[in-house]
Amino acid sequence: MNSTTNIATTGLTKSFGGVRAVDHATVEFQDGKINAVIGPNGSGKTTFFNCVTGMIRPDSGTVSYRGRDVTGKAPHRIAAAGIGRSFQLCRIFPRMTVLENVLAAARPRGVAALLGSARGTAEIERARGWLRRVGIDHLEGVEARDLSYGQQKLLELAGVLMAEPETIMLDEPAGGVNPALIDRIATLVRELNAEGRTFIVVEHNMELVMSLSDHVVVFDRGRPIAEGPPDTVRADPAVLEAYLGV
Ligand code: ADP
């Protein structure tokens, strides 16, 4: 570990029955970078995210965040430590409005109590600020189910940002999103990174990965098989083999 290490894992392992979804993964991400995690379907990327964010307890190995051991800690403790995340299948409340969703992301059990209180007013302003930032503030009164899928992803991101995370893990932010909104998501990630936030992004859109990330880690069968700057990784024979079977 050095002074700029963000999330680091050593020997991280998680099996489901006979399937070793993550297999002795030792990975280090640096503070202040946009990191991408890529790999074929089923290579363990989501399970890796779930182990890091406390959704799943690893069978063995360690997870640290800025030098602090967070292995097996509950999701709310990991979030409180400064790591926010989005999900592959966007997690929002479809029948709540856009504004209520962002408030609910920060206070899952207390939206009703929040509305009408002084603290609530400040929280609502903060929620509106993030909605403006992601570009959907004009939709604050619309039910989330009436947004396009890309807008729902932006809404989820606004909810993640309500917790003011220093590190943000995004699981397929561009999946199922139209090209115009992919551009907006990419711009947002770059801006939020320029403000000091570290990103770790699972993404299948290679064009986006190559243009967005500083550092790429490639998973295959639960293990990191290559890592480095996008251009280096793209030319790595082990990566071509994992993807194309050549
Ligand atoms: P990726 O995100 O790279 O597509 P996953 O982490 O979703 O990969 O899956 C890795 C492997 O673990 C796959 O073989 C998958 O079928 C298996 N797996 C993931 N989650 C579960 C689960 N909850 N129960 C059983 N098998 C799982």
UniProtKB/TrEMBL annotation:
PROSITE patterns: ABC_TRANSPORTER_1, ABC_TRANSPORTER_2. It comes from the Bacteria. Residues 7-246 form the ABC transporter domain. The keyword ATP-binding applies. GO terms for cellular component: plasma membrane. One of its GO terms (molecular function) is ATP binding. The keyword Metal-binding does not apply. Keywords: ATP-binding, Nucleotide-binding, Transport. Gene3D superfamilies: P-loop containing nucleotide triphosphate hydrolases. InterPro entries: AAA+_ATPase (IPR003593), ABC_AA/LPS_Transport (IPR051120), ABC_transporter-like_ATP-bd (IPR003439), ABC_transporter-like_CS (IPR017871), BCA_ABC_TP_C (IPR032823), P-loop_NTPase (IPR027417). It holds the Pfam family BCA_ABC_TP_C. This is Branched-chain amino acid transport system ATP-binding protein. It comes from Pseudonocardia hierapolitana. The lineage of its organism: Bacteria, Bacillati, Actinomycetota, Actinomycetes, Pseudonocardiales.
